[in-house]
Amino acid sequence: MAVSTSRIDVSTALFGLPCACGTLRRASRVVTRVYDEALRPSGLEIMQFGLMASLDRLGEATQRQLSVGFAIDSTTLTRTLGLLQRRGWIERRPGTDKRQRILRLTKPGKARLEKARPLWRKAQEDLLALIGKDAFETLTRVTHDVVAVLNPPPSEF
Predict the structure, then answer these.
(1) Domain tally for the chain?
(2) Strand, helix or coil for residue 61
(3) Does 105 map to a domain?
(4) CA distance 85 to 33
(5) 107 is in which domain, residue-wise?
(6) Strand partners of residue 91
(7) Which of 155, 153, 157, 156 is nearest to 71 (CA)?
(8) pLDDT digits 0-9 by tens, 9-67
């Protein structure tokens, strides 16, 4: 006798392990796809958009500040920032010591970001509609709480 299983049952059986890391990574990949697809016409991915939006909001930031704020390793951040710089969307200038570089958006970077903002807002609205207001707010709150506990900013921030 063949057992009939639905797609959700298989997904739960294969990936429903009680592992916070696996669950968060799966959710992150799915949500990232929603934003990346929405942002595609702007030529940006969500990580690039986030970095550029932060630089726009802050005016300037060091790579260390971005690394800590985004909870991203230095190698990945260096690669992403290098791409943004090669495209002319950000620029670096020396900081107060030899190792420090100050990053900021260029005029073409601001223009690219402005082109992407409505696409990002649409992705936000689509995600909210798909998962519902309560789930959206819970996801955001819980994620912020987890980051605050597990990745507190250094005292110099």
Answers:
(1) 1
(2) strand
(3) yes
(4) 24
(5) 29-150
(6) 104
(7) 153
(8) 666 665 666 788 888 888 999 999 999 999 999 999 999 999 999 999 999 999 989 99
Classify 62 as helix, strand or coil.
strand
pTM: 0.84
Distance between CA atoms of 154 and 17, rounded to whole angstroms?
Answer: 33
**Domain assignment present for 21:** no
Tell me the CA distances in angstroms from 102 to 41, 60, 90, 99, one per residue in order. 29, 6, 10, 10
Does 23 reside within a domain? no
The answer to whether 34 touches 126, Cβ cutoff 8 Å, is yes
Please report whether residue 24 resides in a domain. Answer: no
In the 3-class helix/strand/coil scheme, how is 75-136 assigned residue by residue?
A: HHHHHHHHHHHHCCCEEEEECCCCCCEEEEECHHHHHHHHHHHHHHHHHHHHHHHHHCHHHH
Tokens 């005292």, residue located: 155
**Given CA atoms 132, 136, 142, 146 in this order, what sign does their dihedral have?**
positive
- Cα–Cα distances in angstroms (integers) from residue 153 to residues 19, 95, 102, in the given order: 25, 20, 19
- Residue 120, domain CATH: 1.10.10.10
